[in-house]
């Protein structure tokens, strides 16, 4: 479900014609629907009903301040993976007591920042990180709330680059070693054990890996209880998939039902860290066709967005539906489908948004919508080829708001300097 719909063959975001936004802000730009974001967050969160739970949005999926603020007004927390994401979340008004800090490589400075900010807990991923946190907490005369991320060795059946819960992945602590780490943490002066966490991967389209992981975590929590270690939070991470093409991911309600069942007999609060499922199809990337080109073997549609704007096709071979902003229904258009590659201006063959795709006839100047780009879209963008990053726009009802200005040439070089010896 989303709010990007055609009215008289023209694509709208809620009640705003997308072509009008393009006229005002230029292209390319990311466009988000606040109604879709709200609907997805609420659907997910409410699926868990009365079960004590917390929905901590995975900031890395889409980290614009306005969007973080929107989720926090809906009662959401944040799952962060860096000091930068902590800074953003606090600036956006997220309650620190609803912030969870994940990631394998937190620096000492980042640990300190999280600690003094009063976040809910650190998901610690190694024994050395625990030692470092104890040291930082002692220096600050604070107690660090921790949960350990365990690696349950469950196959999430997703793309290899985004699978995180297999024994061979860099994430978490193997279950067999984790018990020892908990016992060690229990005896530390400045550490307070809060929970157990795991996150097995992203874009999962089946429920069974989640329930399998949850089951393993549950058994582990029972084992900790025999040592007198009581767990208040069970953090199952994120990872619920979405439909990009023909995937059939479970509905959040189905997912919640399965988890609630598995939670029976546990006293703890369930923590969820959804990213993609909340924002993916609440955002699209709008670009304009610069040129079209026919060669002996290919039709190319060259647009003004590129792999620096949306990395997913190049990085994972990901599929994003492509739609015209203005649907051409004239006689000439009927039956004029073509097989084409949609490519950007970047000097890499890997710079494409779609390959060998059946598309309506796009012409120079046409606007194109790259669908389901809200998750890992703008947040993965870069300045490669010295391309200023795209603008971000949020629609609410019949209004649109630029929530991140398009970068310009000045911002590109703002932090660079030429040393004296070159002057
Ligand atoms: C990336 C990540 C998430 C979010 O994953 P999605 O697939 O976007 O839901 C949640 N938790 C952790 C620890 C992550 O690294």
Tell me, briefly, the overall form: globular
Which class of the largest domain in CATH terms?
Alpha Beta
Average of per-residue pLDDT values: 95
CATH domain fold name of the largest domain: TIM Barrel
Bound molecules: pyridoxal-5'-phosphate
**Counted beta strands:** 21
CATH architecture of the largest domain: Alpha-Beta Barrel
Helical content band:
25-40%
Structural class: alpha/beta
Oligomer: single chain
- What's the CATH H-level superfamily name of the largest domain? Alanine racemase
Number of helices: 12
Short description:
By secondary structure, this protein is of the alpha/beta class.
Written overview of the protein:
With 423 residues, the protein is of the alpha/beta class. It has two domains: 4-31 and 281-412, Lyase, Ornithine Decarboxylase, Chain A, domain 1 (Beta Barrel), CATH 2.40.37.10; 34-279, Alanine racemase (TIM Barrel). 29% of the residues lie in helices and 25% in strands. It has helices spanning 18-25, 34-47, 65-73, 83-92, 108-117, 127-140, 175-186, 208-225, 252-263, 276-279, 312-316, 409-413; strands spanning 4-7, 10-13, 16-17, 29-33, 53-58, 77-80, 99-101, 121-124, 144-151, 173-174, 191-197, 233-235, 269-272, 283-294, 299-303, 322-324, 338-343, 352-359, 367-370, 391-396, 399-404. Strands 4, 14, 15, 16, 17, 18, 19, 20 and 21 form a nine-stranded mixed sheet that branches. An eight-stranded parallel beta barrel has the order 5-6-7-8-9-11-12-13, surrounded by six helices. Helix 8 runs parallel beside helix 9 (252-263). The radius of gyration is 23 Å and the shape is globular. The termini are far apart. The model has no long low-confidence stretch (mean pLDDT 95). The structure holds pyridoxal-5'-phosphate. Pyridoxal-5'-phosphate is lined by residues 58, 60-61, 79, 81, 102, 199, 202, 237-240, 273-277, 375. Pyridoxal-5'-phosphate (PLP) binds next to helix 10.
């Amino acid at each position: 479900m989303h709010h990007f719909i055609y009215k008289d063959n023209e694509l709208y975001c809620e009640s705003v014609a997308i072509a009008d936004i393009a006229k005002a802000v230029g292209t390319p730009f990311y466009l988000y629907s606040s109604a879709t974001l709200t609907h997805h967050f609420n659907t997910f969160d409410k699926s868990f009903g009365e079960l004590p739970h917390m929905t901590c949005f995975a900031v890395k999926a889409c980290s614009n301040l306005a969007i973080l603020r929107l989720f926090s007004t809906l009662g959401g927390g944040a799952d962060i993976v860096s000091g930068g994401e902590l800074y953003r979340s606090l600036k956006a008004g997220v309650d620190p007591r609803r912030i969870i800090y994940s990631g394998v490589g937190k620096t000492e400075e980042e640990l300190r920042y999280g600690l003094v900010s009063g976040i809910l807990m650190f998901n610690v991923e190694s024994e050395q990180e625990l030692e470092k946190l104890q040291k930082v907490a002692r220096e600050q005369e604070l107690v660090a709330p921790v949960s350990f991320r365990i690696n349950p060795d469950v196959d999430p059946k997703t793309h290899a680059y985004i699978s995180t819960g297999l024994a061979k992945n860099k994430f978490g602590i193997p279950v067999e070693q984790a018990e020892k780490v908990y016992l060690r943490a229990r005896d530390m002066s400045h550490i307070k054990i809060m929970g157990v966490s795991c996150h097995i991967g992203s874009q999962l389209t089946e429920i069974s890996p989640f329930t399998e992981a949850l089951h393993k975590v549950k058994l582990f929590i029972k084992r900790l209880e025999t040592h007198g270690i009581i767990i208040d939070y069970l953090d199952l991470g994120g990872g619920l998939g979405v439909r990009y093409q023909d995937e059939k991911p479970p509905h959040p309600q189905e997912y919640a039902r399965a988890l609630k069942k598995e939670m029976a007999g546990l006293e703890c609060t369930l923590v969820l860290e959804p990213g993609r499922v909340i924002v993916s199809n609440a955002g699209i990337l709008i670009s304009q066709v610069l040129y079209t080109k026919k060669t002996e073997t290919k039709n190319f549609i060259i647009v003004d967005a590129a792999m620096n704007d949306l990395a997913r096709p190049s990085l994972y071979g990901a599929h994003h539906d492509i739609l015209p902003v203005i649907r051409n229904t004239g006689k000439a258009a009927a039956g004029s489908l073509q097989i084409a590659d949609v490519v950007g201006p970047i000097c890499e063959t890997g710079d494409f948004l779609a390959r060998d795709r059946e598309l309506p006839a796009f012409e120079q100047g046409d606007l194109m919508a790259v669908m389901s780009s809200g998750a890992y879209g703008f947040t993965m963008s870069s300045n490669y080829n010295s391309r200023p990053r795209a603008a971000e726009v949020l629609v609410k009802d019949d209004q649109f708001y630029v929530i991140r200005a398009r970068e310009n040439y000045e911002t590109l070089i703002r932090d660079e300097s030429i040393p004296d010896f070159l002057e």
